[in-house]
Amino acid sequence: MRTLGIDLASDPDRTGLCTLEWGSGRAEVVALRVGADDDALIEEHGRAAATGIDCPFAWPAGFLAFLCGTTRLPTGPPPEWSGAYRDSLRYRSTDVKVHELTRHWPLSVSSDLVAVAAMRCQGLLVRMGVRDRSGDGRVFEVYPAAALKRWGLPSRKYKGQSGQAVREDLVAQLVARAPWLELDAGHLDLLKTSDDALDALVASLNARAAALGLTLRPDDDERREAAREGWIAIPLERDSLDRLAAKG
After folding, report:
1. pTM of structure
2. Segments in 3-52 forming alpha helices (H)
């Protein structure tokens, strides 16, 4: 079984990619790099049994309704610009769920810079044949920081040059927790120097967890909205990381 993790950016040069080959009691890093255009991502996806994409799969339903409602100037009183109303335009149901479970707020697809990457993501989802954004069994939305938090690993302040020390500690802890993960010295160096590569690896691990049924799924009341807005595959338990490469 192969899993693909994609740390999707608006710029292909900053897009991370990680493919893992899973066997009995092991997982080998067979591809890890930063720099991948859409064709390269689709090619790797074609070889994978499960793909995890670190990018919002859609926009909040409330935000889309808000946009449609502002095509004409309103004649009645303006909406109450309260925190709750504003948040309904910024966050999807799955974002709220992630915050409840991890205390992390994912970047808002409607009001943060991730919106441009989400536009690119729509083209990838179409090419991958995704019809259900809640996780169709092969393509899953993932959020590496939430996965790391659920697995009991450092999940904050590991980005960029200022996060170098935290990132190196995170990589060391991840390797210690996953002795079944086979990677060479070049892979280790890239994980320590690039948070894009590290997020791609975590996304690939998260895709494996989703494929094994070790991530949170929407309940009956959430499923319809999740199919439209997207659903982040959050690992259920801390020990789910240890179970990813269980023999048999």
Report:
1. 0.93
2. 38-47
